[in-house]
Amino acid sequence: MASSGYYRYPTIHHETVIFISEDDLWSVPASGGIARRLTTSVSEVARPILSPDGQWIAFMARDEGPYELYVMPSVGGEAKRLTWLGSVARPVAWTPDSSRIIFVTNHGQPFPHTMLPYSISPNGGEFQLLPVGPAHNVAFGPNGGMVIGRNTTDPARWKRYRGGTAGELWIDPNGNGEFHKLLTLRSNYASPMWIGNRIYFVSDHEGYGNIYSCTTDGQDLTRHTDHDDFFARNPSTDGQRIVYHAGGDLYLFDPATEQSNKLQIDYHSPRSQRQRRFVNGGDYLQYYSLHPKGHSVALVLRGKPVTMGNEAGAVQYYGIEDGVRYRLAAYLHDGKRLVATSDASGEERLVILDGNSQQPEERLEDLDIGHAIELLPSPNNDHVAITNNRNEVLLVDLQSRELKVIDRSTTLHDTSIAWSPDGQWLAFNHADDTETSFLMIANITTGEKHQVTEPTLQDVAPSFDPEGKYLYFLSYREYDPVYDNLHFDLSFPRGVRPYLLTLQKETANPFIKQPKAPKSMKDMMEKFSEAGKHQQAEEEAAKGITIDFDGITRRILPFPVPEGRYSQVKGAKGKVFFVNHQPQGSLSRNIYAESAPSGVLDCYDFETMKTENYASGVSEIELLPETDTLIYRSGKRLRVISTNNRPDPSKESGDNSEWIDLNRPKVSVTPSEEWRQMYREAWRLQRDYFWTEGLLGLNWPNIYTLYLPLLEKISTRSEFSDVIWELHGELGTSHAYEMGGDYRPSPHYAQGFLGADLAWDESAGVWRVQRVVRGDCWSDRFGSPLDRAGVNIAEGDAIVAMNGKRLTKDHGPAVHLVNMANTDVTITYRSGSLDEEKTVQITTMMSEGRARYREWVNENRRKVHAATNGRVGYVHIPDMGPFGYSEFHRGFLAESSREALVVDVRFNGGGHVSQLILEKLARKTIGYSLPRYGLPSPYPSNSVRGPMVALTNENAGSDGDIFSHCFKLMKLGPLIGKRTWGGVVGIWPRNPMVDGSVTTQPEFSTWFTDVQWGVENYGTDPDIEIDITPQDHAAGRDTQLERGIAEVLRLLDEHPTNQPEFGDRPTLAPAPLPKRHINGKVSS
Hints:
Layout: E1 8-13, E2 16-21, E3 24-29, E4 33-34, E5 36-37, E6 45-50, E7 56-61, E8 68-73, E9 80-81, E10 89-94, E11 101-105, E12 116-120, E13 128-129, E14 137-140, E15 146-150, E16 168-172, E17 180-181, E18 190-195, E19 198-203, E20 210-215, E21 222-223, E22 233-237, E23 242-246, E24 249-254, E25 259-262, E26 265-266, E27 277-280, E28 285-290, E29 296-301, E30 304-309, E31 316-317, E32 326-331, E33 338-342, E34 349-353, E35 361-364, E36 372-377, E37 383-388, E38 392-397, E39 402-408, E40 417-419, E41 425-430, E42 438-443, E43 449-451, E44 458-464, E45 470-476, E46 482-483, E47 490-491, E48 497-502, H1 521-528, H2 530-543, E49 556-558, E50 565-572, E51 575-581, E52 599-605, E53 610-618, E54 620-624, E55 629-634, E56 637-642, E57 666-669, H3 671-689, H4 700-707, H5 717-729, E58 738-739, E59 756-761, E60 766-772, E61 798-802, E62 805-806, H6 813-816, E63 824-830, E64 837-843, H7 849-867, E65 872-876, H8 882-895, E66 900-904, H9 914-921, E67 927-929, E68 937-939, E69 948-952, H10 959-969, E70 975-977, ...
Parallel strand pairs: 4-26, 65-66, 66-69, 69-70, 70-74
Antiparallel strand pairs: 1-2, 2-3, 3-5, 6-7, 7-8, 8-9, 10-11, 11-12, 12-13, 14-15, 15-16, 16-17, 18-19, 19-20, 20-21, 22-23, 23-24, 24-25, 27-57, 28-29, 29-30, 30-31, 32-33, 33-34, 34-35, 36-37, 37-38, 38-39, 40-41, 41-42, 42-43, 44-45, 45-48, 46-47, 48-49, 50-51, 51-52, 52-53, 54-55, 55-56, ...
Helix pairs in contact: 3-5
């Protein structure tokens, strides 16, 4: 029985169409019919291009790691790998005579989005650069004519995009190397094709992606297709007809008849990647909760709720097996039932799960709880407290099915909630502005709320003492600045301390040691009965806690522990546990991935008044004071320990380990059902988190309905990703991403790098070093291993062997470096024209990107210094995150003492620190500090005394957009280059999908005093527009940097910034003593 697949990336030659489905190559007649599978790849295959003679298919595949270039016969057969670049190599065309494949790659570039075109023979060998500069597409015409597409990526992934990286078409109609823009229509062009005397392409200037064409002089713009639902995507031509895909189907357009028809494909596949499989539960730990007695744990593993004993016993499974996601599953007070959220109906609602009941699942369908963030059952009744995406604190009575909104903050912030031991009080933090938050306590019976803290900045993370005497919390009210070690600055890297407030007026300060009589047998007996005292106190607390609200905000006491970066505070019997984190560098952090567990678990004992370390490598904790039990998470592991004593080192491993075996549950996955759930959730998250309620006028329910049928077509995780990207693309808004997820495992053999450009010397029969990347010679990441002390391999030297194996033309260094990243290797080489061979050991790089970036920056700085006789400094900022902040200071601190400054934010990848950098650039020198010996230094320090210019381009985006626009808005100097990316609706990735992938919701739109919302989906215009044309690239010119240098020199001429002549120093010597008069006479 035939089924329908999800078809992408078609290519055509006469009566043969090749396309991608299920991440493999397929062939089908151009007239339709039975499709034939050509590959059974171990990974993903994409972007096939048929040769003009119809004999070969060039494509990219990731059989051994990143996407590399392959070629195979068009009728099927063995594929041959052509590149070993360790980076994406995407075929885009063949030369008209089928002799060479044109592919684009970011290999050897300082920035990952810079794609340059190269050509290579289908037989392999060296590749050659096409000297046209960046290009995503290349098409050939008659007489050597060429059209290239810059930024011509898929418009369907951001529909109706009009920002700086909207696709451009450049044409060289006569093949003489003289390019000009083909069209200036405000649109996003893609996939240029040359047929006859017309250029065909995709454009969405009329709101939908369709096939258009114009003449080679940019006239007679004509639309040829009429898709008003799915965009036409990735068209390809054989010079006669065009094939493309839309909505998972293939279409064939014939310019001769002006007809576009859907191919009817008879598709047969086992669709094996849709079939059920099992995964390790520990890899998908998403939530955990202790049983009220502490002996068992409730888990959510890949959206499935289970319970099991901490150490042994059968696993109890709950809920609907497939197609439903459960979250936040927690035990209710009776220890028999769970409460969780479930999206079985398509909306996330509360559900009560009871594995021993005839009604295993009870849904509270009528209660709109929003997107729940924290869910906390009452310790002794059927109440559940919830925080959600609407900044609300909700109270749900599971018996009466009543929902109350206990509190609603007026601004976005992290809300934490805590139950009192008697279940009558709920503590939480509330925010009325963007900077401060305070604690409140609500009575769940009367609904009365009381503010219990007056914040200095923020009070968060409340937690009740189990005996009902205190409310513990964390507070940002410590201001102990630390001097920066590199420049004049101070910061507050810690700033948080745990506090308590006494709930009753008569409660004494627990941190004051009370006098005690000498120990006696009676004292010893009382000590042994201490647990009994605590139990009695807890029983009394459970009967009802009385809180004296009069003067409560003045009853705050700090714990006698150092300030830190505390994230949690939890009370046990006579003890309090804190999770504290040490300040760490930010360069290795990934905002889209879970951070490595870095917390330290400490315990403060009220009896001994001492703090003791319990564990390290802690992510978070949950504590049950009634059972002296604490569970903590460390990355993807869980450990249950007693609060009475430090963990036993002997129980770190083995049969008596305190670690929970998270692979005991058998977690099944049915991808087809899971993808349907994930699709609904991705759509729902955009609806609930998008920055405006009406989603800017979009009919979001209709869009959901449009894309839903595609789920029946898809068979692989990459196809599902493609659907989500198109769905998000309908928002027409920046930062609507989908990343990661559970893809089919495939080999990954990381490529090793030498940090050098090598080429085959045909005359000598050797691989010769053309250039060594000159970054930081002392750095493993920012410098070439050939540029290390003691290596002595230079430009012109011949590399003859690696690890004892001789190199040949077909098996050069790159082939030998597969699976050799960050590995010690030996290199045998000959220096210059000498015959003597030497062998040296080096450690390969995992990536050359940082080293090539450092070389690029250093070379730009050298050019600026040389062109201005050292008067002007140069700083590049690669992004607006930790790396960009680091690179800014690396350059700025050294360059700010010059007369003027060029600030380069081209290729800036965005982030969030632009305001910190602009603040420093805005400093103006208003004075100097003059020592007796040495040079004057400006006041404020590191202030630029002369003019500044900023360079930007279309690849400066997000916070790079904001920086570029604000540089103009703050009148810091002229902005030079090209219009920026145009994406200033920010994100906060915090809602991972069930398979671990991340979707982002555009949540925070940026408004400016001059253009209001105008930067989003447009960018910011430079004051001086300078493009780098294909001809400039061919000549090796950076016209934007050249104009920046010229402009800053012009400003220096107009406004000289010579250091002041400070003149003579003041004198403090006293004047001669004046004569005085004595009896009318002047004294001598």
